[in-house]
Structure formats: C-alpha cells, structure tokens
Amino acid sequence: MQELTHYLNGAHVKGTSGRFADVMNPATGEVQAKCPLASKEELEQAVAYAAAAQPAWAATNPQRRARVLMKLVDLLNRDMDKLAEALSREHGKTLPDAAGDVQRGLEVVEYCIGAPQLLKGEFTDSAGPGIDMYSMRQALGVTAGITPFNFPAMIPMWMFAPAIACGNAFILKPSERDPSVPLMLAELAEEAGLPKGILQVVNGDKEAVDAILYNDVIQSVGFVGSTPIAEYIYGTGCAQGKRVQCFGGAKNHMIIMPDADMAQAADALIGAGYGAAGERCMAISVAVPVGEETADKLIAELVPRIESLKVGPYTSGNDVDYGPVVTAAAKANIERLVQTGIDQGAELVVDGRDFKLQGYEDGFFVGPHLFDRATKDMDIYKQEIFGPVLTCVRAQTYEEAIGLAMDHEYGNGTAIFTRDGDAARDFANRINVGMVGINVPIPVPLAYHTFGGWKKSVFGDLNQHGPDAFKFYTRTKTVTARWPSGIKEGGEFSIPVME
Ligand code: NAD
To answer: Could you list the residue range(s) of the whole structural domain that residue 461 is in?
Structure first.
C-alpha cells in the first residue's frame, strides 16, 4: 500500500500523527493509498518553514518571481499527461476532463506571470507643498488554502499562483481524497525555481484545518468546498483576525426559453449536467423550461441523449462521457436524494438506479438520472446532489423561471438559452447569481476575469483569480513623504580649490 506524504520545506515528509485517510480508486472501489492526516504540530512545523523563507521571497523582485511561474507553465505542459492520469486515478473523472482541470489551473499561473504589472502601486506627485504620496501592495506573509476534491489541480493553482506571485509563502491543505496531484504541483514549483518553504502541502482533515485557523502567523485563508464548511471556516477565520475568502456549494439553474434551439439546449445540458458525474460547482443541476410545450420538447430531446451516455473508468480513454463519483459515501448520498425525489412526487424519467458496469461492480458508478416536474419544496431541488442527476422544474412564464433562480439559496452560476437578446439582457442584469451564461451552459470566467458566486455560494468580499486575487494576497500601504529642502545651487564647473 502506497503511503503518501506531506511536502515540507522542499522534501516529501512522512506523516507522524499516526492518522491516515484511505485514498480510493473510485473505478474499482479499492483503497490505493494512505494519506497522512497532519497534527497541529506538523502544521506548525510547516508554518515555521514558511515564515523563515517568506521575507527573502517577498524581497525578490516581482519579475524574478514571475519567471518561476513562467517556468512552471512549461513544466505543467511537459507533465500534463502524468498529472491528468494521477488525477483521474484518484478522482475518477475522464482523462480529457482531468487535463482540463490542469489546464484551467495553468491558465491562472499564466495570468500571474503579469505580477509585476498587477502589483504596481500608485503615486501622487506634489500631493501638498513638497509632499509626495504613494501606495504599494505588499505581501501578507504566510498564507494558507484549503481545497476540495473535485478540482485537485485547478483550485490549488487558483490559490497558490497569485499568493506566491505576490511574494507570500503558501501552505496548501488539499482534499484528503485526492492528494497526489497537489503534491506533484509542489514538486514542479520547486523544479521551476521556487525556493523551499514557499509552497508546502500539509495533508489532513479538520485537525489540520483548525490548526490553520487558530495559527497566529497565518495571515489569510482561502477555502473552496461545501457551504457548511465554508461558513465555519469564514466565521472562525475572521474571528481570529485573518483575511478569509470561502467559496461554497451550488445549485445552478439553466432557463430554456420557448425560442431556444432545443437540440442545442439539450446538448448543453448533457455536458453541463452529467460531465464529471455532476461533481462540479458549475454543473447545471436544474433545468427550467418556460412553458409546457418547451418542457415537452426539451425532455424529448434529453431522454435519448441521456440514455446513450457512456459511463466507465478513465482507463477506457475517450470512449467514456463520465466516470464514477469519488467515494462510496458520495454514491450513497446521491442514491438517498434520488429516493427522496421519488418519495416526494417528482417524475423519474430516466432511472439510473440499476446501473452496473461489468468488471467494475465495486466501483462508485452512478447511472444518469433525469427528474421532471420537480417542485420548489423537494429535497432534490433544494439540496446540492453533486451527482449525475438533472432535475427539471417546469415554469409557466419567464418571470416564474427567473424567480426560481433568484429565490434559491445558492447563487454560483446560471444560464439562459434563448434567441431573444432582450430576454438575455434582462436576465443578465436582474439575476442575483455571480456567473451568468447566455447560451453558454458552464460560464466559468477565464483567468483574467474573476470567479465567484453570490448568496450562500460565497463568504467574503473578493473573488478568485483575476485582479481580485492580487488584492486578496496583498495589503496596501500608503506613504506620505516630505523631505527637508536641500542645497540646490547646482554643479561646480571650476576645479575646487582650498581657500
Ligand atoms: P468539503 O467541504 O467536504 O471539503 C472541502 C475541504 O474542507 C477539504 O479539504 C476537507 O478536508 C475540508 N473539510 C471537510 N470537512 C471539514 C470540517 N468539518 N472542518 C474543516 N475542514 C473540513 O467539500 P468537497 O466534498 O471536497 O467538495 C465538494 C464541494 O465543494 C461542493 O459543495 C461544491 O459545490 C464545492 N465547490 C465549490 C466551488 C466554488 O468555487 N464555489 C468549487 C469547487 C467545489
């Protein structure tokens, strides 16, 4: 059995707490590795290394720091296949999807190469008589981030790339379910020239998280994961005086207007609803067709597409649309919620409950499900299922449809499918959701824009990546300077002589 490590001060270090989590192969249901769960002391050791290394890194000019990220981009491209394979093996997503996970992180590393430009301060000449005023952005010091299982490459990079570009040291506490890729990323960063101690990986669970939250040296905490934990980390971290940003769960609605191209909308829903087995915070989990006729047409388009989805292990390559979910517990939770949908009266139009894959009977595969005629009060509508289950709620009017999305407690992403520019524009302006797609089902902003939801999908003020990340990982300092007047007679052109 492989025993994974932490990555501290430039070296793989075995866990000393004696506690481990099982890392599963979701396709086979077998335990493939043991992930060490750090104690408070192990976390404190990482903080000590980080605090020792950080001042010199912050004093390194931003261009040199950016060159490390430039090199890291090369190394990520070099090792793309290796990273994707390790990611699929622990997460279960298909290889092309895993490569996309790495790619979306890499793009933020690329963006952070612009750090010298992004960190430039402001200057006012002669703010008063003989007075200049300037502002600069300085690193926070030691920073930390806690990441979820579903994007084990992308989200760590979204955090550590801007953190280190700004001159901070960063301690990553990845998900204990798929910790191998984060460890590989830390190794690559060092190969790219990052000094030891600037990017460390401390594997762990709540104990390591609490050690981060209550550590006085750590200045900021970033979190991505489920909403209850986001709320806990935000509340606790802020009470400890830290800068905190937390991104939580989602229930993303896609509104389908009567004038939409129904085949196009159905294709979009298949990818956005079932891709990565629905384990994406930007997955579309609720379809809201406007009008009975639209709903009937949409369901007719969806059913054959869903029934022909290919579910299987990542080792089957491009022949698979989505893989298993991450753990037996995740599978059981999806099955439980599907049962509540049936019990509470939704119509199960595509029933994936009997799905079995020959040779992979112990894997955590879940067949695709489609519910129709769900209502607002049902658990399948209210809760995040995080599985291959699409729920259709029929609305009679556009106002009813937008009202549904507006009233839901989550506000991560949403989409509208229509040919009507006026409806699309009204939707984009009024909707209280952070990321909006117009005929785009998964509107994940690119690296140079910012990523973040509204409502219970976020706790904190600044978004991930884009210019917000450079604000989150720096503090502004403003200097007002006046110098006593000096001698201004100018140069002497005749040879000085002693008188
Ligand atoms: P999770 O909340 O279970 O775990 C996230 C992290 O928190 C992990 O590192 C985990 O070790 C840690 N953790 C778990 N329980 C904890 C506890 N009691 N105290 C302290 N720390 C704890 O989430 P997950 O299952 O890994 O990821 C899926 C969730 O993440 C979904 O809700 C999804 O919507 C959300 N997500 C959100 C975004 C976003 O940007 N909004 C992006 C990706 C995933």
So the answer is: 2-248+457-479
Q: How far apart are alpha carbons 461 and 459 in whole angstroms? A: 7
Our count of domains for the chain comes to 2
Point out the ligand 1 atom lying closest to the alpha carbon of residue 176.
11
DSSP one-letter code for 147: -
The reply to whether ligand 1 has any atom less than 6 angstroms from the CB of 203 is no
Residue nearest to atom 19 of ligand 1 (CA): 206
Residue nearest to atom 26 of ligand 1 (CA): 148
Identify the residue whose C-alpha is closest to ligand 1 atom 10: 175
Among the listed residues 35, 112, 166, 281, the single catalytic one is: 281
92 CA to centre of own chain? 17
Asked if 288 and 401 count as a contact pair (C-beta separation under 8 A), the reply is yes
> Same domain, yes or no, for 163 and 221?
yes
Residue by residue, pLDDT tens for the chain (499 residues) are 899 999 999 999 999 999 999 999 999 999 999 999 999 999 999 999 999 999 999 999 999 999 999 999 999 999 999 999 999 999 999 999 999 999 999 999 999 999 999 999 999 999 999 999 999 999 999 999 999 999 999 999 999 999 999 999 999 999 999 999 999 999 999 999 999 999 999 999 999 999 999 999 999 999 999 999 999 999 999 999 999 999 999 999 999 999 999 999 999 999 999 999 999 999 999 999 999 999 999 999 999 999 999 999 999 977 899 999 999 999 999 999 999 999 999 999 999 999 999 999 999 999 999 999 999 999 999 999 999 999 999 999 999 999 999 999 999 999 999 999 999 999 999 999 999 999 999 999 999 999 999 999 999 999 999 999 999 999 999 999 999 887 677 777 788 776 6
Measured CA to CA, the distance from residue 456 to residue 468 in angstroms comes to 19
Q: Are 381 and 360 in contact (CB under 8 A)?
A: no
Annotated active-site residue 281? The verdict is yes
CATH number of the domain at 351, please. 3.40.309.10
Is 278 close to ligand 1, i.e. is its CB under 6 Å away?
Answer: no
Residue 322 lies in a domain: yes
Q: Helices in 321-452 by DSSP H: which ranges? A: 328-343, 379-382, 398-407, 421-430
Q: Which residues pair with 20 in a beta bridge?
A: 36
